[in-house]
Design brief:
The protein is α+β, with helices and mostly antiparallel strands and 529 residues long. Helix content is 30%, strand content 20%.
Length: 529
């Protein structure tokens, strides 16, 4: 009889889940606190400095936002009590609602908002557009600030409310006064949770306590809009890197939520009457490969085009997201208003390794080392990087894996040096369809060279088209513009798509009220029986 790995896992966990858990978990008694295992460790606490989802979730807990999108992705006031726009559509006036206070008990002011918008505008694509179109952003009085535009920007409120990291989190003026390239070192927000600095165990756990003084809006919770009602006293993020240990803790009731359970454990979770597998972001994500366009060999467009032909999306999805994955060929995601098939002749089921080999030769590839950054604590990166390395090795590419946790990858990907000097060649990441539908919001659709997102693709013609997006009036015009942009993107190859997938999470049935959205996981509204 053949016993599969899955059968062994199931039997072992059923027989002795508690025995396999670390002593710190076994020692916990039943608690009203919620314990969550996030997909990655929280290395960076400044949600403007870093655009990672785990840092955005941290920001969502302790900071507040001027506007928040509801479940239909429509912007609604959050910190703003009321706002107005002038007849010429160039002057927006915002007044803060009553009851807003920092965790140090000082009031939130308009000056805090102005400083936060300016800092966000240094790094977020939507914020950069706001700064570019603004002639002035200033406070009128302690509760009122004004954004004055050089020309109308009809999507201003949408940009202020966008949930694509880095989101517009409002910080104290003295914190937001730092350049966006320098980390804020305090964690004083005005949001529904307080960050418990005393209980921080770097690499192990992070604790969030209910902010008893937070004044929520009166409207019912709806997406990121409405009242942010906290229904538990404390939430702890436990960093458990081993997926089987995390699952054992989930089964035993020591953990309430696992953000990204391994695919091979999903059938076991679904068969447990105390557990639930659920998808919070129903629209899904595109998994993609970022190439370092500044360094050899991918500074040559032929080498980047080779990667389009090399990769077998079906093979990647069968390993990375079985049952939950499929192919994707549009830079605007799997199924958004702007997804299209322009210039997708490169796509071939199973890939075309011989074409890829030919293109590497045309690029003048001479055996340069190709370094793949591999995040070992995120399964798509860990497993996908190995598939990627194998595919490159088969066509004669000198490839090397650089394993680390996601925090290490995030640090190294910022280096623009050659691989000999600690740089890199490629890494796997993902982006929500929600964000890919807006080339003004997601940093992954920029192609402005060294000002672009990691990989730094550059194409001036594409950027000229992207700049028109804010001024296009109708849906049909935007769809036509999207086709033009995609046509250029697949010529200069700003990235390579690996497939589209939805990411299931696992929770105990006793944990309810989770809000389903792309990109971020709010912690208010959830409750534990």
């Amino acid at each position: 009889m053949t016993i599969s790995r899955r059968d062994l896992i199931k039997a072992g966990l059923a027989a002795g889940a508690a025995i396999s858990m670390p002593s710190v978990l076994r020692a916990r008694a039943a608690s009203p606190s919620v314990h969550m295992v996030k997909a990655n460790d929280l290395r960076i606490l400044d949600p403007i400095f870093s655009a990672t989802n785990v840092t955005a979730d941290h920001g969502l807990a302790i900071y507040d936002t001027l506007f928040g999108v509801d479940s239909k992705f429509m912007p609604q006031p959050q910190m703003v009590g009321k706002w107005s726009v002038s007849d010429d559509k160039k002057t927006y006036t915002f007044e803060l609602r009553d009851g807003l206070a920092w965790h140090d008990d000082t009031p939130v002011t308009a000056a805090d908002c102005v400083a936060s918008i300016r800092r966000w505008g240094e790094v977020a694509p939507g914020g950069q557009l706001v700064m570019e179109r603004s002639s002035d952003i200033s406070k009128k009085d302690d509760k009122t600030f004004v954004i004055t535009l050089r020309e109308p920007l009809g999507i201003l409120i949408d940009l202020l409310a966008d949930l694509t990291p880095p989101c517009l989190f409002i910080m104290r003026e003295k914190d937001a006064g730092r350049p966006a390239t320098e980390q804020v070192t305090t964690n004083v927000g005005s949001g529904p949770f307080r960050f418990n600095e005393a209980l921080v165990k770097p690499g192990a756990s992070y604790t969030y306590d209910k902010n008893e003084k937070y004044v929520p809006r009166q409207e019912p919770a709806d997406g990121l809009a409405g009242g942010k009602i906290v229904k538990v006293d404390r939430i702890i993020w436990d960093n458990i890197s081993d997926p089987q240990t995390a699952f054992a803790a989930l089964q035993a009731g020591e953990i309430d939520y696992v953000e990204q359970p391994p695919n091979d454990l999903l059938p076991v979770i679904e068969g447990d009457p105390n557990l639930v597998v659920d998808v919070l972001d129903k629209s899904g994500k595109s998994m993609l490969l970022r190439l370092n366009c500044l360094q050899k060999p991918f500074d040559n467009v032929k080498a980047r085009q080779a990667m389009l032909h090399l990769l077998d999306q079906e093979a990647f999805m069968s390993v990375l997201a079985p049952k939950y994955g499929r192919s994707v060929t549009s830079i605007f995601g799997g199924d958004t208003l702007y997804s299209n098939d322009e210039n997708t002749g490169w796509y071939k089921k199973g890939g075309d390794p011989e074409k890829a080999k030919q293109l590497f030769k045309e690029a003048g590839y001479a055996g340069e080392k190709v370094v793949v950054l591999q995040a070992t604590d995120w399964a798509p990166s860990n497993d996908g990087s190995q598939l990627l390395a194998a595919a490159l090795h088969k066509i004669g590419i000198n490839v090397e894996l650089a394993p680390s946790d996601w925090g290490g990858l995030s640090t190294r990907r910022a280096k623009k040096d050659s691989v000999e000097n600690g740089g890199w060649s490629m890494f796997i990441t993902s982006e929500a369809d929600f964000s890919l539908a807006s080339p003004l919001a997601t940093p992954l659709l920029l192609a402005n060279g060294e000002s672009a997102w990691y990989g730094w693709p550059k194409n001036d013609e594409y950027e000229a088209l992207r700049a028109k997006w804010a001024s296009v009036a109708t849906l049909e015009e935007r769809k036509a513009l999207a086709r033009q942009m995609q046509g250029l993107w697949w010529d200069f190859v700003g990235d390579v798509r690996l497939g589209h997938y939805v990411s299931p999470m696992a929770r105990r049935k006793t944990l309810t009220g989770l809000i389903g959205l792309p990109q971020v996981v709010p912690m208010w509204n959830m409750q534990k029986a």
